[in-house]
Amino acid sequence: MSGVRVLEAGPRALLVELPCGEDAEAFHAELLRRRAAGELPVREIVPGARTVLLDGVEDRALAGRLRSWTVPPLDRGEGEAVEIPVVYDGPDLADVAEAWGVAVDEVPRLHARTEFRVAFCGFAPGFGYLTGLPGHLSVPRRTTPRTRVPAGALALAGPYTGVYPRTSPGGWQLIGRMPGPEALWDPGREPAALLGPGTRVRFVPAEVRG
Amino acid sequence: MSAGIEVVRAGALTTVQDEGRTGWAHLGVPRAGALDGPARRLANRLVGNAPDAAVLETTLTGCAVRVTGNRPVWAVVGGAPCRVTVDGRPVAWGSPVRVPGGAVLDAGPAVHGVRGYLAFAGGLVPEPVLGSRSADLLSGLGPPVLREGHVLPLGRPGDTPGVDTVPWPGVPAELVLPLHRGPRDDWFTDRALRTLTTAVYRVSERSNRIGLRTEGPALGRARGGELPSEGMVLGAVQVPPDGLPVVFLNDHPTTGGYPVVGVVAASALAGAAQAVPGTPVRFVDA
């Protein structure tokens, strides 16, 4: 794969940097395939926006091998899609519509017809950064973050879509909400996160009740 | 009444900690676990526990617990040195002590260092979450921070401990942290990189289980812009916009958007766990 940089992150970790997010997702998928095949003895594989971190690396020669890997392009249609019901009634719908240059009622339509994929997790357990929206539909973060974003809030920032697994502060633009957000994260369940890296996701408009 | 402990005095911040939860960073789950790993393992060894058994980690002011049930429990207080009593009578710090059923084991304020460890024969056995009994203060997983009246169950004691005294590491007067450069050292000016390994920083009182914050000369960046979120390792020295290095400890976020100038070897982090605010910090090339 061209444009792969392998950086050391201390004596036991490697940070693999790719030219773009799509390449990082493809590289991550390849790492998971190789680990499943028993070819990659590492403790953690942590995808980021344009990187994949390998932690618990004992084999110093791995860095050289990573650079020479042939990695197939990402198959975004791989695996079954998780369907998330969502009510598109967020307080930032108008701001997002303006940023996108469309009418307010176009936002749910454009969002719900997009095929998403969890690129990476972070911020809180079970919070996935979902890619899939085309580049021209990126939106800035809010200039003033909210001190309280409710659990289940469906939100946009930069190229990403996310659903808050629990109430927390946040600076993303809120366009809707998922009923029953407790399904996003349950440490007693396997898998604990509904939206783990690599998961395909579709948002399905739900009826407003009550 | 079954074997357990009841919190009589919770102290400033007392949590249950074991080796932490690994293998979940890709879901945004921090590793957690005792900050001073060697102290936790030593304390467990002294009461005949497996090294990964769960203990109490205290912060500066210690804590006090009552042994529930009728049977005596072997316990040890280690890590940061402090005065130890059982029902008000002084007992040895750093060695196993027999605490009768109903008696109160009190670990006093730290004389040196920050974090004390209370290990009990059988280990603490609250319900594990994702394979660990550690409290994770960043994301709230695991048992809650201890409060007065909390009761924690104990497991079955193992073999009688075969050792009763061991050398405990001292608390360093100066924290020397061996630093592996990168992965984002190229985000900083040459002058900043020289400053990092020559200047004396001090431990900030805003330090916590997430990170050891420092005060000292700010590190200037060689480039602007934002770093797209990337995975973070234990010991990562992250530099936020104020330019002051933060050494990531066990409850660190799994991904972050500020550049990591270098990584402190995990073996040096036990010292960081015990460094009180104001302690001089030197980063040296590993």
UniProtKB/TrEMBL annotation, chain B:
The entry's keywords: ATP-binding, Hydrolase, Nucleotide-binding
InterPro entries xrefs: CT_A_B, Cyclophilin-like_dom_sf, PxpC
Stored SUPFAM superfamilies: Cyclophilin-like (SSF50891)
Domain Carboxyltransferase: 26-286
Short name of any one Pfam family annotated for the protein: CT_A_B
Keyword DNA-binding included in the entry's annotation: no
Protein name: Biotin-dependent carboxyltransferase family protein
Gene source species: [Kitasatospora] papulosa
